[in-house]
Amino acid sequence: MRRLDKALLSGFLLLSSALSSVAQEPQALPAADERYKVDILLVVAHPDDEGAATPYLARTLDEHRRVAVVFGTRGSSGANEAGAEQAAALGAVREVEARNALTTLGINNVWFLEGRDTASQNVLLSLANWDHGESLEQLVRLVRLTRPEVILTFLPGTFIGEDHGDHQASGVLATEAFDLAGDPAAFPEQVAAPMKRLEPYLENLRPWQPKKIYYFPDADREDIFRGKGPEYSVKEISKSSKLPYWRMAFDSFRSHQTQAKSFLDKLAQMDEAQIEKMATSDSFWTEALHFVLGKSLVGGSLTGDVFEGITPGAIPFARPEVSPEPARPELSVDLAGPYSFYAEFRRAHGLTNLPHPEPPEIALQGHTTLVIPLWVRNRTAKTQAISLAASLPAGWTLQSGTGKFTVAAKQVAATRIEVLLPAVPENETKKPEPREVTVRADSNGQSIGEIKLRVELRKRALPQ
Ligand SMILES: [Zn+2]
């Protein structure tokens, strides 16, 4: 039998090679998998963050557009309203909740980066805790796999608002991936084809340049974002579900039991009219969605539809236009930390028109420490003496960081001023007003810089 098998096999091989040499039909080379091509890639930080866009996603799905979602983390640092599970176990539960929420809308292509949920307002802390490089590599891979026309994500910036560092980090990574995924020199192992059969290292993806990136802000203020992008009502009725878009978003949200069980239990007791009354009296559910256009490589107007100017097919890779470094005097002081990072980030990614508060702002919990991070730049050829002073609102206490210092020649030194903030009484009912802090830097009796920061005190806020 064995010999017969062999004879049959060699006969078959001879026949098939003879046939292929005379074949007329060209063989199709493998193409990218169409099942993963999307129109919109949503990039957010935590399970339930998709809620910032779900009414719009429901609308765009009605228009037969394809959507995929990337979460930066599994949201494992939160509290659990639905069970005892905590930390990584909670993250495993939340991954399923997020998938279920999106399945409700008809979105099945959902991925999670390996970022760790980091409770602070400092984007740099989040990026560090997310293994910035690895997360970016994975996100670039997913952009090349899904080939989005548009990326939609949190606005990278610091504001008075929820201002979660992880939200900002998702916007930073999405912007970086927008600028890198089309570059064949970035993560080239992803775009190389294997040269041997079953070579399990090279990925055979192609570079992909998304056409537009839109942001949604995490800020309380709206003034600086007005007119910077399109606005979408969430009250229109969906053609597919015959429900208003806010209502579809609401139904999708019902999956997030670990984050909102008490609210969802109340909801389960309500009839349709009561749900409508509750949602329309709380503008959180029914206010229009505002996006901010980050950049478009295909034209279109600032406030026009997200898909204005977009036509099918790939566009060439567009290296971002880097703005020149600002001119600085030989001796200067700047706000450092996330503030200087964002100034550099906007410059590096061609986002110099991206709205940002001026002066910079932050909301902090009362009776915590405000840290003002500073860079002192000395481009001169000798050590320089400087002095730092701060003007504070009444009741705010300077803890450290002012006085006289020296900075060595040709050095950029980091320092910080720390201020103890007064407590906010639990029974405080007045709406908090931001207060201004001013830092002045002098050298040899001459001013070398003045920095302002608006700080709002709250009963609760994420750590700085
Ligand atoms: Zn979040």
Tally of DSSP helical segments: 12
Radius of gyration: 27 Å
Count of distinct strands: 17
Strand order of the largest sheet: 3-2-1-4-5-8
Proportion of strand residues: 15-25%
Order of helices and strands: HEHEHEHHEHHEEHHHHEEEHEEEEEEEE
Low-pLDDT runs of 5+ residues are none
Please report the distance between the alpha carbons of the first and last residues. Answer: 77 Å
Name the bound molecules.
zinc ion
Summed over residues and divided by their number, the pLDDT gives a mean of 93
- Describe the global form: globular
**Considering DSSP H and I runs of 4 or more, what fraction of the residues is helical?**
25-40%
Summing up helix and strand content along with how strands pair, one would put the structural category as alpha/beta
Mind describing the biggest β-sheet? Answer: 6 strands, mixed
